[in-house]
Design goal:
alpha+beta; Nucleoside Triphosphate Pyrophosphohydrolase; ten-stranded mixed sheet; 5 helices; 10 strands; about 30% helix; globular
């Protein structure tokens, strides 16, 4: 069997085990059609970076002023590297820092039907949201910049609780994303 055949089988297995995560998505808030794949996109398409951060035996979640729970991460700034964006977003939203290298588990490749990019330097209409996991330490309060989410609580919770909090009022793919990160972390250990 060739490496290409092995990889195709691995991708098909992931899609079968995490069907909600791999299903086509319509994100109405941004006029976006998206689909997850464990195949990583080219750097120039990545506009957003998000992390399943593991700390104190749990998954780090942030709660905003509206009561929504989310994974830390966000939009890349102009000419910002993936690593710099991740470090900045962890500090801004979770008051956290990396204590191990990030492991990228996949991305939502997306196409928007909006006439202009969200930010002028972003690719348009195609873009990607990069997802990963890493060991982190929550060692301060979120910096809550004026142009970001206003985080009122950061908590490390067991993966099963993270799944429930992230899925509350949302699509089931959020829980599968946490499950995939837990699985990837277990394999790496």
């Amino acid at each position: 069997m060739t490496d290409t055949t092995d990889r195709a089988g691995e991708l098909a297995d992931l899609a079968a085990r995490f069907p909600n995560l791999h299903a086509p998505q319509r994100w109405a808030w941004g006029g976006i059609d998206a689909q997850f794949s464990a195949e990583l996109p080219p750097d120039q398409l990545i506009t957003n970076i998000h992390l399943v951060g593991f700390a104190d035996g749990g998954v780090v979640l942030c709660r905003d002023v509206r009561g929504h729970w989310f994974l830390p991460g966000g939009t890349r700034e102009a000419a910002e590297s993936i690593e710099c964006c991740l470090v900045r977003e962890l500090r801004e939203e979770a008051g956290a820092r990396l204590v191990g290298p990030p492991v990228w588990i996949g991305a939502h490749r997306a196409v928007t039907d909006t006439p202009e990019p969200y930010r002028p330097w972003q690719p348009h209409p195609e873009k990607a949201w990069l997802w990963g996991w890493a060991e982190v330490e929550v060692d301060s309060s979120p910096t809550n910049p004026d142009d970001g989410e206003q985080v009122v609580e950061v908590r490390a919770v067991p993966p099963a609780e993270a799944r429930l909090l992230l899925e509350h009022g949302r699509e089931a793919w959020w829980g599968e994303l946490v499950d995939l990160a837990v699985e990837s972390r277990t394999r790496a250990a």
